[in-house]
């Protein structure tokens, strides 16, 4: 658990007067409640893009990759550009979660879940392009070193393209386990709050029997640290191996030793930008502004600014080494990028990746939600152009001028790319409606240290745990004091609202019902309900979702139990039998 002390100059990471119960309710709301109109708008746009992409993929597979804009000179183009772009985006998710976990950074808590999910969905999109590019996607399993029906046919272990298969599949496996492990406490939370038996059964299976015991948490911490330690070097290795697809060739513009660190820096750069895009969307769509704060957005923007500067240095290094090498082919490749037919793509890359992140030096701009959202999109556009420039401008003008040609994407190229973007957002939005998008247990671990409610109490010199005056609420003229050993109702306004919906009960004239007949209400809970002013089956039978939440916030014990056990339905039957 995090320390309950934090320097006063640090801004709160959880804003609003949020308590532990509020965290549970807010994070479970997108899963338990109905999707709002913002979710449906974004999901509809993503679904249309995805279906368009599916149509283009079917057309490609049924007709052949001649439907793409490839030619004899530019044999790699749109498909490999998109593959490298998606792999790069997938990098930052696990890196954010793993590295920030190892360094015990508290601002990780609200963003790691979305970042890890982004990794999984991005790698899925990346894997589509090499499979389609094979021409016979139903034989994609041939890239794996497994026995096949052709006897001695085996994969070429000298090829970096095969290294991609091993690196990306390993990275995907570790990232998936890392993501799922972090979800276990949240699956258990949804399981315990579930009302429908089918929903409870599904989340029971997903939670792998999580009980919240000390032993569970100990193993959870150990496994998380081990997986974070494995994932961190994998982040560096995967895009290093992707860069070898180019760096091991003799093509001018590719044959350079700077590619491995250059690709890794660019991947982190684009990945952080996509995380920012998703966080800004999710905080609005899922109403999580209290947990994904301006402070989180600003910290992400600082990382984007730093990694953008590293990418800019890599561009300058490339230019310098091409000039310093004295190799005329290498010099021409870079001159052609800046002044040739694709100069517009080169300068778009430079503008988006080098110049735009430098605007983040302004605190006013990097704390602006709209500006941050725009820059995050601009950066990923620029990183896509970077991959396009590296691949196409290095191929379209070969050693022989007679083989020079231009590449132009067809509607199928564009459609498949847009389809993968739609597929990515469809998966992410469905995930947000099925799984908690924020790690509620981890947010609770920093609440005392970084929650604005507790910071205010600490700054005012008040205790973090403050019990209000103990009173009992009935229909009599004045409240009656309670004995010390009895748990009292917490807040006057909440109790008044609750009794306003359920009705009051005069204990002096009416006989209380035995509430223990309701499954889930024991002696202690009955005593607590009596203290609030709830004595009869008729009152309990009037409870709806609103009253259940209000009761949970007052008692702060066994959240969601009343709704799960359907107290209202039980009380109605018992009241009819009286």
Quick tags:
two-stranded antiparallel ribbon; 1% strand; 578 residues; 2 strands; mainly alpha; single chain; elongated; 23 helices
Explain briefly what this protein structure is.
The protein is 65% helix and 1% strand.
Give a description of the structure:
The chain has 578 residues and is mainly α. Helices cover 65% and strands 1% of the residues. The chain contains 23 helices and two strands. A two-stranded antiparallel sheet has the order 1-2. Helix 7 (214-247) packs across helix 8 (259-285), helix 10 (328-339) crosses helix 11 (343-355) and helix 11 (343-355) runs antiparallel to helix 13 (369-395). It is elongated and about 105 Å long. Mean pLDDT is 81; it is low at 466-490.
**Strand arrangement across the biggest beta sheet:** 1-2
Mean pLDDT: 81
Write down the overall geometry: elongated
Oligomer: single chain
User: Can you summarize the main beta sheet?
Assistant: 2 strands, antiparallel
Ends distance: 50 Å
Global structural class: mainly alpha
Low-confidence blocks of residues: 466-490
Work out the strand percent: under 5%
Question: What share of residues is helical?
Answer: 55-70%
Q: Total number of β-strand segments?
A: 2
Count of helices?
Answer: 23
Element pattern in H and E: HHHHHHHHHHHHHHHHHEEHHHHHH
Radius of gyration: 29 Å
């Amino acid at each position: 658990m995090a320390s309950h002390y934090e320097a006063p100059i640090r801004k709160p990471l959880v804003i609003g007067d949020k308590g532990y119960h509020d965290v549970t309710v807010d994070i479970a709301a997108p899963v338990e409640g109905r999707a709002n109109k913002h979710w449906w708008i974004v999901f509809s746009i993503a679904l249309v893009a995805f279906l368009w992409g599916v149509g283009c993929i079917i057309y490609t597979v049924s007709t052949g990759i001649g439907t793409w804009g490839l030619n004899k000179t530019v044999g790699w183009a749109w498909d490999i550009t998109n593959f490298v772009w998606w792999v790069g985006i997938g990098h930052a998710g696990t890196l954010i979660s793993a590295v920030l976990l190892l360094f015990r950074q508290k601002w990780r808590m609200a963003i790691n879940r979305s970042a890890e999910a982004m990794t999984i969905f991005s790698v899925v999109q990346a894997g589509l392009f090499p499979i389609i590019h094979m021409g016979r996607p139903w034989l994609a399993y041939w890239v794996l070193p497994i026995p096949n029906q052709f006897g001695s046919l085996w994969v070429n272990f000298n090829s970096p393209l095969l290294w991609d298969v091993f690196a990306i599949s390993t990275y995907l496996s570790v990232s998936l386990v890392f993501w799922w492990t972090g979800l276990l406490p949240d699956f258990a939370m949804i399981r315990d709050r579930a009302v429908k038996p089918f929903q409870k059964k599904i989340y029971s299976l997903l939670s792998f029997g999580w009980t919240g015991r000390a032993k569970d948490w100990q193993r959870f911490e150990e496994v998380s640290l081990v997986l974070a330690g494995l994932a961190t070097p994998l982040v560096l290795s995967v895009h290093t191996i992707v860069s070898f697809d180019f760096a091991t060739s003799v093509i001018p513009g590719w044959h350079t030793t700077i590619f491995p660190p250059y690709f890794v820096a660019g991947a982190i750069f684009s990945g952080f930008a996509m995380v920012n895009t998703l966080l800004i969307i999710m905080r609005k769509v899922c109403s999580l502004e209290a947990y994904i704060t301006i402070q989180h957005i600003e910290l992400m923007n600082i990382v984007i600014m730093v990694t953008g500067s590293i990418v800019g240095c890599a561009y300058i290094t490339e230019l310098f080494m091409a000039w310093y090498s004295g190799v005329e082919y290498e010099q021409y490749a870079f001159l052609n990028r800046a002044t040739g037919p694709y100069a517009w793509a080169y300068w778009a890359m430079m503008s988006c990746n080098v110049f735009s992140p430098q605007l983040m030096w302004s605190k006013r701009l990097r704390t602006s939600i709209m500006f941050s959202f725009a820059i995050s999109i601009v950066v990923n556009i620029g990183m896509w152009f970077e991959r396009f420039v590296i691949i196409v401008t290095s191929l379209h003008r070969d050693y022989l001028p007679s083989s020079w040609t231009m590449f132009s994407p067809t509607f199928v190229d564009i459609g498949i790319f847009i389809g993968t973007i739609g597929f990515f957002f469809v998966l992410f939005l469905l995930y947000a409606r099925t799984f908690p998008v924020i790690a509620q247990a981890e947010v609770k671990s920093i609440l005392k240290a970084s929650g604005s409610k507790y910071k205010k109490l600490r700054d005012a010199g008040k205790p973090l745990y403050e019990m209000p005056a103990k009173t009992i609420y009935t229909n009599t003229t004045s409240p009656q004091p309670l004995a010390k050993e009895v748990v009292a109702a917490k807040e006057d306004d909440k109790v008044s609202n609750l009794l306003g919906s359920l009705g009051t009960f005069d204990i002096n004239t009416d006989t209380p019902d035995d509430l223990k007949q309701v499954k889930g209400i024991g002696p202690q809970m009955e005593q607590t309900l009596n203290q609030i002013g709830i004595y009869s089956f008729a009152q309990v039978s009037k409870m709806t979702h609103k009253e259940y939440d209000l009761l949970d916030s007052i008692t702060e014990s066994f959240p969601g139990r009343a709704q799960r056990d359907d107290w209202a339905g039980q009380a109605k039957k018992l009241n009819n039998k009286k």
